[in-house]
Amino acid sequence: MTIAPFTLEDLEDLAELEPADWDVMMGRLRWHLSTPYAVAIKSVFGEAMVSGLGTAIAHNGSGWIGERLMMPRFKGPELEGELLDALMQELHARDCATLLALVPPESKAVFAERGFAHEGDYVLYAGGKSEAPTLDEVELCEPHHSMGILHLDRNATGEDRRILMSEHFYAGRIYVEKGRVRGTYLPLLGDGLVQADRPDVGEELMRWHMPHVTEVWVPEANAVAQEFLQIRGYTVQGRRHRMRHGTPVDWRPEFNYGWISERLG
Fold first, then answer.
1. What are 85-124's pLDDT values in tens digits?
2. What is the pTM of this model?
3. Which three-class secondary structure state does DSSP give residue 120?
């Protein structure tokens, strides 16, 4: 088994996977292939057979492990471990001292064997119904709000994600109080990023977000978000483990009301 860069020509080799979200997956992979701070690798069996695919993204000092897709005949912890090792090497080469991942329960051992620590869980809520937003303080994101948005993201995640964030300000909504950005909703960034540094702001931005989606992932440690969803009939449908390798970051789960995605944090 060898590791090599994934290319556009390799996309057709993934047909065997037959994912339900084929078009969405193709879009994600094309984005990784065209984005300088993203990583896409493949594992090759023999001389030419693609057996697996891995993706990651490098921020300033931190990186996220993304896809670990494996062809059915090769799928298992051994290949997932090889893909993970290669992605870790790529991120370390890009000076990422902190590596993060959102991992399903069946993959936790693969990450733990490589020194990843469990930092908490995200839980999936679905099946309820939320009311419409009510407050006037939520407004469209404007260029002069960008520093406030990035400052809030840094406080919420402990990471410097300015490049990824700045590419998705369009159509964003923010909660502003006395000129200060207290909350951010970026509907075009992954599943729709929702962050707030105050509970009532987080709840209001969830009112903006929930009518447009059927499900949402929130940190289990965010009691405000969980109560908001439970009152409105949402129930837990899934779980992902947040795992970290390397230097700790000051992640504030109580500031996070909706992730970007399982692959981007």
1. 999 999 999 999 999 999 999 999 999 999 999 999 999 9
2. 0.94
3. strand
Residue 72 has what pLDDT?
84
CATH number of the domain at 125-239+246-258, please?
A: 3.40.630.90
The hierarchical CATH code for the domain 2-96 is 3.40.630.30
CA distance readout (Å), 107 to 116, 144, 242: 11, 42, 11
pLDDT at 20: 64
Mean pLDDT of 151-163: 98
* Identical fold between 2-96 and 125-239+246-258: yes
| Strand ranges across the sheet with 98-103 | 2-5, 38-45, 49-58, 62-70, 98-103, 235-246, 117-126, 215-219
3-state secondary structure 26-57: HHHHHHHHHCCCEEEEEEEECCCEEEEEEEEE
Q: Where are the domains of the chain?
A: 2-96, 125-239+246-258
